[in-house]
Every structure is written in C-alpha cells, then in structure tokens.
Write a structure and sequence with these properties.
Number of strands: 0
Number of helices: 3
Order of helices and strands: HHH
Shape: elongated
Strand content: under 5%
Distance between the termini: 52 Å
Helix content: 55-70%
Structural class: mainly alpha
Oligomer: single chain
Protein name: CopG family transcripitonal regulator
C-alpha cells in the first residue's frame, strides 16, 4: 500500500478524470506509473549502453548514408 500527497491541481484533475470516465483514481495512477516505469527502463538501458566501453556509435551522417538519405 502506498499513500501519495497530491497538490490541489493534480487532485482536481484526477477527480475530474475519474468522474468523467467512471473509473477509480487508482486506475489512472497505476497506468501512469506503469508508463513511467517503461520509460525509465528504456532510459536506464540507454544510459547503460552509452556508458559502455564496447559501445558502437556512428555519426548522424553515417546513419543517413547507411539509410540512403
């Protein structure tokens, strides 16, 4: 179980969204956290790869050439 304090603007938004969609507020909070989790996993993977000693980077010019642009 987790308790989160929201500012008034976010609380009002969440209340309105829940009322208009007939879904519980927790539905939207869980959905938002799942999306954030996926984004953060992607970001962390990109950071790990960019800091790797064996990374294989190419310039934008090399990429465009390889794609025929």
């Amino acid at each position: 179980m987790l308790t989160v304090r929201l500012d008034a603007e976010m609380e009002n938004f969440l209340n309105t969204l829940a009322e208009q969609t007939q879904r519980p507020k927790s539905f939207f909070v869980k959905n938002a956290l799942e999306n954030y989790k996926e984004d953060m996993q992607d970001w962390l993977e990109a950071q790990t790869r960019s800091n790797s000693q064996d990374r294989n980077l190419i310039s934008i010019e090399e990429l465009e050439k390889a794609l025929g642009h």
